[in-house]
Design goal:
Blueprint lengths: L1 H9 L6 H5 E2 L2 E8 L2 E6 H7 L12 E6 L5 E3 L4 H4 L6 E4 L1 H8 L4 E2 L3 E4 L8 E6 L4 E7 L3 H6 L5 E8 L2 H4 L6
Parallel strand pairs: 6-9
Antiparallel strand pairs: 1-2, 2-3, 3-4, 4-5, 6-8, 7-11, 9-10, 10-11
Main location: nucleus
Keywords: Nucleus, Ribosome biogenesis, RNA-binding
Organism: Batillaria attramentaria
Amino acid sequence: MTVFVCVCFHFSISDNIKLLIDRPDGTYCFRLHRDRVYYVSEELMKKAGNVARENLLSFGTCFGKFTKTKKFRLHVTALDYLAPYAKYKVWLKPSAEQQFLYGHHVMKSGLGRITEATAKYQGVIVYSMSDMPLGFGVAAKSTQECRHADTMTIVVFHQADIGEYIRNEEALT
């Protein structure tokens, strides 16, 4: 739970964390299994308890994993759960969407909009101009700095995107 709380604060959804756990369709929780953090209903978790840990591959939705250096890396599979509650968002122009989906950082020239008062190094959800969530990023510049930046300046560092479903299909469990 501590890891997810850190992720929530990074993406500023901490006020809405209760909405992820106590849902109308049941109670959900976060579980660590083989260095991966899963978001799972308590009902499914109880059923998974009938399988030996060494035989259990995955259960629920993988939110991310711990690297060998014990840093938490958020997976794109968490995007649909975090996007509705994110406080800081970035919208891309249509010309920049494909570049982001190939794993590139966002340049000022591709920035459509950015949430007011976004701080430097704040976690952001990246959207298309039609409000479709595309991935995660970290603001390389604050909202104020973006206004005065050169067009070729990186404004959002790429972290994860929906293109990973195709590029890293075997790694997403």
